[in-house]
């Protein structure tokens, strides 16, 4: 009897679980559709446009943070190729599992002579650092998951969030954690530690992305117009609650893009301040805007990557009269240098062991 490989069994279980979760969410929305649709109709076109604009800010800031990390590790990229690689790879998060985005980005990065291992490490650091930043932004909303009007705990959570955020982003501690993680994964250590500047810049980018995403939830909640709490409490629930729900959902690696986990947590946070139907309307529309933003950015990134042969096959490159890396390494290197913005000075600094950092 032929034995089914373990990874195929795990993938099948992940897909089955993802289907069940998505089906449960869809069923819950269907059962309450009359109320949910009424709340959706309350959201004006202006609020929709503002929410969509805020959603679009998040991926831009995220790719900037990823680019800072990749540059500090030794592979500087201009914004266009960085977006082409990152945005197309991001569609992998909608596939059940935990590594497809990183695999896609690493594969595309090889066309620019970015080592797969370096791309993978940059992707893992980005995910981990983004999750930490999201939890720090969302920490003030954590007490409200358990007690609706626990103002004192919220104040303490706010006071705790700042030193916790500073501690986690302390370069020495962060590099130690990265080194430990790579050892546990049986991977080679970093060629050099992340610089404090790179950690600070990428952390600020990720915090800005979480605040922008949370702000779109706040716009939608306010547009629904049903609130039983103060405007300040509603803003905290929306902005911090969205960051908390999304960052925790990032650890639900068996679910595509955390679908279901984020929505469930956010409804738990928002429903006491509005209503269950209003909170459901907000999370449904928020998910729709997020997916559309990812698709639009991925389409733009795909068009750029396709036109610059980052996602074309060897046969297509040969058909277009372009050199392949195997046949013309010098030409490929020149093409890479034109896209990455590597200067002679940068090459010299890398050769001497001083890698340029920053964005």
Automatic annotation (TrEMBL):
InterPro entries per the UniProt record, alphabetical: L-PG_synthase/AglD
TM regions (residue ranges): 12-30, 50-70, 120-142, 154-173, 194-215, 235-257, 264-282
A GO CC term attached to the entry: plasma membrane
Originating organism: Pedococcus cremeus
Keyword Hydrolase in annotation: no
Topology versus the membrane: Multi-pass membrane protein
Protein name: Flippase-like domain-containing protein
Region Disordered, annotated ranges: 315-359
The keyword Transmembrane appears for this protein: yes
Compartment list: Cell membrane
Keywords, sorted A to Z: Cell membrane, Membrane, Transmembrane, Transmembrane helix
């Amino acid at each position: 009897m032929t034995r089914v490989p373990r990874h195929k069994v795990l993938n099948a279980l992940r897909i089955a679980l993802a289907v069940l979760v998505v089906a449960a969410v869809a069923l819950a929305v269907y059962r309450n559709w009359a109320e949910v649709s009424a709340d959706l109709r309350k959201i004006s076109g202006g609020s929709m446009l503002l929410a969509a604009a805020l959603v679009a800010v998040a991926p831009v800031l995220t790719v900037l943070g990823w680019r800072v990390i990749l540059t500090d590790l030794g592979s500087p990229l201009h914004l266009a190729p960085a977006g082409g690689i990152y945005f197309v790879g991001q569609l992998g998060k909608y596939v059940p599992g935990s590594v497809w985005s990183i695999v896609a980005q690493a594969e595309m990065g090889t066309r620019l002579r970015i080592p797969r291992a370096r791309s993978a490490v940059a992707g893992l650091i980005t995910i981990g650092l983004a999750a930490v930043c999201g939890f720090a932004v969302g920490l003030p909303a954590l007490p409200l998951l358990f007690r609706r009007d626990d103002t004192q705990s919220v104040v303490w959570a706010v006071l705790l969030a700042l030193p916790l955020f500073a501690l986690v982003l302390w370069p020495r501690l962060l590099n130690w954690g990265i080194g430990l993680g790579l050892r546990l994964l049986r991977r080679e250590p970093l060629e050099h530690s992340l610089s404090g500047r790179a950690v600070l810049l990428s952390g600020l980018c990720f915090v800005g992305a979480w605040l922008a995403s949370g702000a779109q939830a706040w716009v939608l909640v306010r547009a629904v117009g049903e609130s039983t709490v103060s405007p300040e409490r509603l803003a905290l629930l929306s902005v911090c609650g969205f960051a908390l729900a999304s960052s925790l959902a990032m650890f639900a690696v068996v679910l595509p893009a955390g679908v279901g986990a984020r929505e469930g947590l956010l409804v738990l946070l928002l429903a006491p301040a509005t209503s269950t139907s209003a909170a459901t309307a907000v999370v449904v529309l928020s998910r729709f805007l997020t997916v559309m933003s990812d698709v639009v950015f991925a389409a733009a990134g795909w068009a750029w990557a396709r036109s610059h042969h980052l996602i074309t096959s060897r046969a297509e490159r040969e058909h277009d009269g372009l050199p392949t890396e195997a046949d013309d390494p010098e030409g490929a290197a020149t093409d890479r240098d034109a896209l990455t913005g590597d200067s002679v000075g940068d090459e010299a600094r890398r050769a001497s062991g001083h890698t340029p950092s920053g964005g």
